[in-house]
C-alpha cells in the first residue's frame, strides 16, 4: 500500500461532498475537502410544476472540491457516486437537454400500470429483477415519451456518468447504477433488448439508441480534463450507485449478514451471488440490484429518515426556530415505546410536504393513537422505521434462504443510536453500527484497488474498513411485543 490520495465525489439528496482518502498502516484515512448543498428546484412547465435537480450547481461544487483537493494532495484518482435512477439527456451536439428531473416529481404517477399493459409486471421482473418504484428510470422515460426533449435526445447518462462525462468526455453507464433503471437484464448484466423493444414499440421511444456502453465498477473510464486537474488523473467507475459503494464498505467478517444503508432512504437487504427472481420475491417487491465483483444487492427500499428530515423542515419553517435534533431524539427515547406505529412505506410519504400532518392522518385512519407533539412524532417515526427494518430483514432471509446472524447499519443513520437500538430489538439480531461514511469509503477503496494500491476482493476491502473506523454494537432487548406492533403497522389503510 502507498499513501497516494484518492478523491471521492459523494452526492446525496441534501448535499454533496468531496472527500480525500489515502491508505496508511492498513487503514484508510479520510478528509472532507468540500461540502455543498443540494435539493430539488421547482419550475413551472406548462400547467404544472416540475421538480428538477440543479445539476450545474452540483458540477460547480464538484469542480471547487476537486481543485481544493489538488491544492492539498497529489490526486491519484477520482470516483463519483450518487443516488439512482435520475439521468440527463444529451442532444446530438452533446448539450444537456434541461436539468434532470427529480425522482420525487409526480410525472410518473400511473405510469407503471401503463407499462404493465404491454410488459406484464412478472415478465419485467423476470428480466430486470427490479422492485416496482414509480421513479424507476424506465417509468421516467415512458412519462417523457412524446416530449420535445425525448424526441431530440441522442444519449442518456445516469447522473454520476453525466458528471463524469463533463469531466472526461466518456459516455458510459456503470452497472450498479444501471441495474436500478428497469432496463438491465440482471442475470447477464447487459441492457435488456426485450425491455427496450417494448418501450420502443408501445411508446415510440427508441431507448436502446440512447443507452451507452456498460462498464463494471473498478473500470478506468477516462482522464480528468487537465483544466480541472493537472496531469493524467483517471476517473474510475466506482459503485456509482451510492448504495453499491456503501455495501462494499460494510465491515462484515462473515457472509450471513444483513445490511441497512440508512439515510434519506433505508436500503435493507443481503448480499448474494445470484438474483432471486421468484414470484414470491416479486410479490414482496424485493429488488435485485448489482454490486461489486459479480454480487447482487438483494434489497427493498424503505422510506428511511426522509420522514424525520421532512418533519424537522416542517417544524422549523412553521415555528421559525431551529430544531435541536439530539435533544429531540433523547426525549423520544424516553417516550412510550410502540405507542403509535405506521407503515412508513405508504405512498403518502413519498413527496415533500407536511410530514407530521401526514403521519397524524395515517395514524388516525389506522386507529392508532395520534402523536400529540414533536417528541411523540419522532418516537413514532423511529419505532415505525425499526419495524420496517425488521419486516424487510426477515422477508429477505426467507425469500433468499439465507440465515442471518447480524445486521450492519451503515451511512448517516448509523449515528442515530435510538434507531440502531430499536432495529436490534425489532429484528432480534445484534446491530453493528458504522461506518457513517460508508459510501465514501467504498468509493475510495474501489479506486485504490482499481489502480493497484489494494489487492484482494470484497473481504479485503471490508477488513480495511473495519480497521479504519469505530464500530458500535447493539445487542437486542426482547422485552417488547414487536409482533403485535408489526400487525398494527401492516394492517393500516394501505394494506387493507
**Structural class, from helix and strand content?**
alpha/beta
User: Biggest β-sheet: count, sense, barrel?
Assistant: 7 strands, mixed
What's the CATH C level of the largest domain?
Alpha Beta
Count of all domains: 2
- Trace the largest sheet across and list its strands: 17-18-16-15-19-20-21
Q: How many strand elements? A: 21
Can you walk through the features of this model?
- This protein has 496 residues and is of the alpha/beta class.
- The chain has 2 domains: 5-237, 2-Layer Sandwich (Nucleotidyltransferase, domain 5); 242-434 and 471-496, ATPase, nucleotide binding domain (Nucleotidyltransferase, domain 5, 2-Layer Sandwich).
- Helix content is 39%, strand content 22%.
- It has 19 helices and 21 strands.
- The chain has helices spanning 55-72, 111-116, 121-128, 137-144, 148-152, 159-168, 175-178, 193-203, 207-210, 242-248, 279-283, 306-319, 325-333, 355-365, 374-400, 417-427, 438-450, 458-468, 482-490, and strands at residues 5-11, 15-24, 27-37, 40-45, 48-53, 75-81, 87-90, 155-158, 172-174, 184-185, 190-191, 213-215, 219-223, 234-237, 257-262, 266-272, 287-290, 296-302, 406-410, 431-433, 472-474.
- The strands form 6 sheets. The chain has a 7-stranded mixed beta sheet with strand order 17-18-16-15-19-20-21, with helices on both faces.
- Strand 10 (184-185) and strand 11 (190-191) form a beta hairpin.
- Helix 13 (325-333) packs across helix 15 (374-400) and helix 15 (374-400) crosses helix 16 (417-427).
- The longest helix has 27 residues, at 374-400.
- The radius of gyration is 22 Å and the shape is globular.
- It starts with a strand and ends in a 6-residue tail after the last helix.
- The relative contact order is 0.13.
- Mean pLDDT is 96; it is low at 492-496.
Amino acid at each position: 500500500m502507498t499513501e497516494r490520495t484518492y478523491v471521492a465525489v459523494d452526492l446525496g439528496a441534501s448535499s454533496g461532498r468531496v472527500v480525500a482518502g489515502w491508505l496508511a498502516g492498513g487503514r484508510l484515512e479520510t478528509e472532507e475537502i468540500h461540502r455543498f448543498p443540494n435539493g430539488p428546484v421547482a419550475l413551472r412547465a406548462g400547467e404544472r410544476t416540475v421538480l428538477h435537480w440543479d445539476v450545474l450547481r452540483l458540477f460547480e461544487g464538484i469542480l471547487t472540491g476537486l481543485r481544493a483537493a489538488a491544492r492539498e494532495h497529489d490526486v491519484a484518482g477520482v470516483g463519483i457516486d450518487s443516488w439512482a435512477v435520475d439521468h440527463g439527456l444529451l442532444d446530438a451536439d452533446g448539450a444537456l437537454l434541461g436539468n434532470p428531473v427529480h425522482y420525487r416529481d409526480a410525472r410518473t404517477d400511473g405510469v407503471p400500470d401503463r407499462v404493465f399493459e404491454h410488459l406484464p409486471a412478472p415478465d419485467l421482473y423476470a428480466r430486470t429483477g427490479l422492485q416496482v418504484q414509480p421513479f424507476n428510470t424506465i417509468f421516467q422515460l415512458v412519462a417523457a415519451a412524446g416530449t420535445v426533449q425525448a424526441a431530440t435526445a441522442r444519449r442518456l447518462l445516469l447522473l454520476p456518468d453525466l458528471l463524469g462525462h463533463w469531466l472526461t468526455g466518456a459516455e458510459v453507464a456503470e452497472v450498479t447504477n444501471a441495474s436500478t433503471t428497469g432496463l438491465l437484464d440482471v442475470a447477464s448484466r447487459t441492457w435488456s433488448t426485450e425491455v427496450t423493444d417494448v418501450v420502443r414499440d408501445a411508446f415510440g421511444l427508441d431507448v436502446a439508441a440512447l443507452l451507452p456502453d456498460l462498464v463494471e465498477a473498478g473500470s478506468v473510464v477516462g482522464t480528468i480534463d487537465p483544466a480541472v486537474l493537472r496531469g493524467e488523473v483517471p476517473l474510475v467507475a466506482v459503485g456509482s450507485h451510492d448504495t453499491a459503494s456503501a455495501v462494499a464498505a460494510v465491515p462484515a467478517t462473515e457472509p450471513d449478514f444483513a445490511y441497512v444503508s440508512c439515510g434519506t432512504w433505508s436500503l435493507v437487504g443481503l448480499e448474494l451471488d445470484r438474483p432471486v427472481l421468484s414470484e414470491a420475491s416479486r410479490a414482496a417487491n424485493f429488488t435485485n440490484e448489482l454490486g461489486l465483483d459479480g454480487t447482487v444487492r438483494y434489497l427493498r427500499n424503505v422510506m428511511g429518515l426522509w420522514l424525520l428530515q421532512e418533519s424537522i423542515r416542517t417544524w422549523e419553517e412553521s415555528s421559525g426556530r431551529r430544531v435541536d435534533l439530539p435533544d429531540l431524539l433523547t426525549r423520544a427515547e424516553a417516550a412510550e415505546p410502540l405507542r403509535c406505529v405506521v407503515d412508513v412505506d405508504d405512498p403518502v410519504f413519498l413527496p415533500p410536504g407536511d410530514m407530521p400532518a401526514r403521519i397524524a392522518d395515517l395514524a388516525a385512519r389506522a386507529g392508532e393513537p395520534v402523536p400529540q407533539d414533536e417528541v411523540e412524532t419522532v418516537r413514532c417515526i423511529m419505532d415505525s422505521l425499526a419495524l420496517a427494518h425488521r419486516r424487510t430483514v426477515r422477508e429477505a432471509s426467507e425469500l433468499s434462504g439465507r440465515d442471518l446472524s447480524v445486521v450492519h447499519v451503515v451511512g448517516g443513520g448509523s449515528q442515530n443510536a435510538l434507531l440502531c437500538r430499536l432495529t436490534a430489538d425489532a429484528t432480534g439480531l445484534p446491530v453493528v453500527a458504522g461506518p457513517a461514511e460508508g459510501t465514501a469509503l467504498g468509493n475510495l477503496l474501489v479506486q485504490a484497488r482499481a489502480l493497484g494500491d489494494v489487492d484482494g476482493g470484497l473481504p479485503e476491502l471490508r477488513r480495511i474498513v473495519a480497521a479504519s473506523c469505530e464500530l458500535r454494537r447493539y445487542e437486542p432487548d426482547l422485552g417488547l411485543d414487536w409482533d403485535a406492533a408489526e400487525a398494527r403497522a401492516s394492517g393500516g389503510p394501505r394494506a387493507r
